[in-house]
Amino acid sequence: MLDILIKNGIIITMDDDRPVINGGCIGIEGGRIAFVSGENEPSGRAAAVRVINAAGRIVMPGLINTHAHTAMCVMRGYADDLPLNKWLFERIFPAEARLTEREVLAGVRLGIAEMIASGTTSFSDMYAHEPKTAEIVLECGMRANLSNGIIALGDEFDFEADRATRELRSLIADWHNAGNGRIRADASIHAEYTSPPWVWRRMHELAAENGLITQLHLSETKGETEDCALRRGGRSPVRAFYDEGILDTPVLAAHGVWLSDEDMELLREKGVSVSHCPVSNLKLGSGIANASKMLERGINVSLGTDGCASNNSHDLFEEIKLAALLAKGSTLDPTAVPAYTALKMATVNGARAQGRGNETGSLKAGFDADIIMLDTDKPHMRPLYDAVSTAVYSARGGDVALTMVQGRVLYENGEFKTLDIQRVLRETEEFAVPVVLSEKA
Ligand SMILES: [Zn+2]
């Protein structure tokens, strides 16, 4: 007996063998996809506990956000239109220093609610309070790769005593692979400019010992690459990490805006995934990553929102459309990053970047049932000549009618099934907002 049968759907599988099925059904059992069929209903009349009629809906894989600082959504709209250094050092860092666990966790819930409602089923996070975040992710039914980016500025630094290391050890011991594999611990080096090479090597050892992916920020701004060259004998951040052996274990690098041809070659050689964050890079005036060139070179490029203080949204549909448009506009080539490629970045490539390439990101038998549905009964979603084009160029996060992870429905027709949205909104206002606003005199 199936747990769920989805029938009559326009299915975008993201499986290259048959990417789109115009009128098909999906059987779900034990949290996994039992079959994807090209018939509107299964011929054998498979019995199911629940049947979902997806007529008029696009059924597709859940989206994967490969670079987030989820809790930062409590600072959404708090500091906009500022130069990066002023934004970071005068507004964001001081506000972050005031946040305690209570406010951070309110932000995590708010961010997860936003992601669920806009079709994201898995995210890669880099922030503090990650073991507690794991608890919330499990509770909400989401999937996440969690990390705390190590920052070691100044001469005195105790690697083992540092909060990032302690949180990583706790994630490994208590949360890695919890919830049927929904949670994964990732190692993390915040960036080339926030810690010395000996700290990178220690973090890399931890990643290697435990078979973890390492998340980092990489070549985000022009200034970062110029300063690195001055500090490290003309080397780029990519070259510096490469020379220290940091790229010898799987790495998920956010941004990659300022990459030379040599940098791209090193990333390709080491199989590094790059999380393209177009909205954040534009908003902070950092530049435009050359996603089409990276893809051509064989680099796995996925998509991320970055933190909500520099976006100000977790709606991955914006990133998908923008990734396609920026590639076209910046290369003067309208065939660059076609719709299907852009959607792959947010699904298949994202899963690969998270080390979940055999688990999620496309709809095929044996994969986890991480599925979303888009409502097409709206003016901006019609006519529907090509489901992939509609999903990439017309859809918005608000068109998501259903979100499911491992066969569990988390959101349906505007209703959250795993969190109390009124409480989430109230706690954001009551806990987080006053703290963000309480600047010292
Ligand atoms: Zn970031």
Count of helices?
16
| Percentage of residues assigned to helices | 25-40%
Task: Let me know the largest β-sheet.
Answer: 9 strands, mixed
Percent of residues in beta strands: 15-25%
CATH class of the largest domain: Alpha Beta
CATH topology of the largest domain: TIM Barrel
Give the names of the bound compounds.
zinc ion
Number of strands: 18
> What is the count of structural domains?
2
Q: Examine the secondary-structure arrangement and name the CATH architecture of the largest domain.
A: Alpha-Beta Barrel
Shape: globular
**Poorly predicted ranges (pLDDT <50, ≥5 residues)?**
none
What class would the helix/strand composition place it in?
Answer: alpha/beta
- CATH 4th-level superfamily of the largest domain: Metal-dependent hydrolases
The radius of gyration is 21 Å
Rounded to the nearest angstrom, the distance between the terminal CA atoms is 64 Å
Question: What average pLDDT do the residues reach?
Answer: 97
Written overview of the protein:
The structure is a single chain. Helix content is 38%, strand content 23%. It has 2 domains: 110 residues, Urease, subunit C, domain 1 (Roll); 291 residues, Metal-dependent hydrolases (TIM Barrel, Alpha-Beta Barrel). The longest helix has 17 residues. With 441 residues, the chain is an alpha/beta fold. Helix 2 packs across helix 16 and helix 12 packs across helix 13. The strands form 3 sheets. Strands 1, 2, 3, 4, 5, 15, 16, 17 and 18 form a 9-stranded mixed β-sheet that branches. The protein is globular and about 70 Å long. It is built from 16 helices and 18 strands.
